[in-house]
Amino acid sequence: MKRIFGIIALAALTVIVASIGCKKEKEQATEQGKEQSSAKYHIAVIPKGTTHVFWKSIHAGAVKAEQELKASGLDLKITWKGPLKEDDRESQIRVVEDFITLGVTGIVLAPLDDAALRMPVKDAVNNGIPVVIIDSGLKSDDYTSFVATDNYVGGRKGGERLGELLGGKGKVILLRYQEGSASTMKREQGLLDVLKEKYPEIEVVSSNQYGGATTESAYMASENVLAPFRTPDGGLTVDGIFCPNESTTFAMLRALQESRLAGKVKFVGFDSSERLVKGLRDGEIHGLVLQDPINMGYLGVKTMMAHLQGQKVEKLTDTGSDVATLENMDDPRMKDLLEPDVKKWLNE
Q: In what helix (H) or strand (E) does residue 248 lie, and over which residues does it extend?
């Protein structure tokens, strides 16, 4: 009997401790919410990931908009938070849910999956929090505005560049990024469509391999996709390669460099980083399709603020794209896109 009473007492004590712990967590969350929501306008900016240069540029653009709007007298706070890796859907969903709980004024989101983020966005809107989508699309109409590169057009521009480099003939590899990423899927489709329409003598010999969310997984995929086309003398039986984002482009460059094939095959990539700019200057990359990520982050925040202040905003804003080559990479406009000044805004 004493043993039974002991077990009951222990169980009761466990419930009490757990209850106190939950209460403490709620109080801490409430205090955090108060602290983060002290400004009249509190906008959460949520990227797909936080490691690639592209996302740092988005962050820089958001900070630029924040400083500009605050200088005009607005009581505004921007909070930047996202998953570390671009395949962590659950983490990004939790970030969105946390900001809904905190009661932010608006969310600017780059969804890393066009389907998985539909419900979190719907929940935000149902809680009176408008959402502006940036960079990559969402299979939903719940958002206020979509601010992004026309990724299909960007992919077509990459295909045009590759077609010109090959003189309309040859064999091409497409290393894809990852399934569910709307932006890169549109780039890939743009490439395939323009090659089919304008360069029928170019054969796409591989288009079913995915690099994944990290440069390491993309490097392994690059090695795997190149393997069947290697020749005994160390060459390749393909003439051109296209990669649809920063991580796949860098990984493929690395794979080509380590095989001493860099520059020997026509190579067009997407986005920019210090290493990709060097590859372009060294003739190892023959074209980079460039977005304007600083402008994208900037317009994402500005569009949200315009909406919150009752102004009409466009449902779709194209932030544009250009193709950098060895010949034009030192032009002022292209130089700004290749080497965006993120340090100016992020104090790095």
A: helix 246-258
Q: What pLDDT sits at residue 37?
A: 54
What dotted CATH number matches 38-149+293-319?
A: 3.40.50.2300
Domain 151-290 listed as CATH 3.40.50.2000: no
Task: Of 138, 25, 21, 72, give the one whose Cα is nearest residue 302.
Answer: 72
CATH fold match for the domains 38-149+293-319 and 151-290: yes
pLDDT tens digit sequence for 177-198: 999 899 999 999 999 999 999 9
Alpha carbon distance 83, 110 (integer Å):
11
The rounded distance, in Å, linking the Cα atoms of 108 and 129 is 10
Look at residues 139, 124, 184, 153 and name the one whose alpha carbon lies nearest to residue 304.
Answer: 124
In sequence order, what are the beta bridge partners of 78?
Answer: 43
Which ranges in the chain belong to alpha helices (H)? 2-36, 53-71, 89-102, 118-126, 151-165, 182-198, 215-226, 246-258, 274-281, 293-308, 332-338, 343-346
CB 107 within 8 Å of CB 129: yes
Q: What are phi and psi of 148, to 5 degrees?
A: -165, 170
- β-strand partners of 176: 210
Q: DSSP H helical segments within 129-203, as ranges?
A: 151-165, 182-198
Domain residue limits, the chain: 38-149+293-319, 151-290
For residue 141, what are the contacts with CB-CB under 8 A and spacing of at least 6?
A: none
Query: To the nearest whole number, what is the mean pLDDT of the chain?
Result: 91
At residue 53, the pLDDT reads: 87
Torsion sign, CA atoms 251, 254, 259, 260? positive
The tokens of 180 are what? 């569910």
Provide the whole-model pTM.
0.83
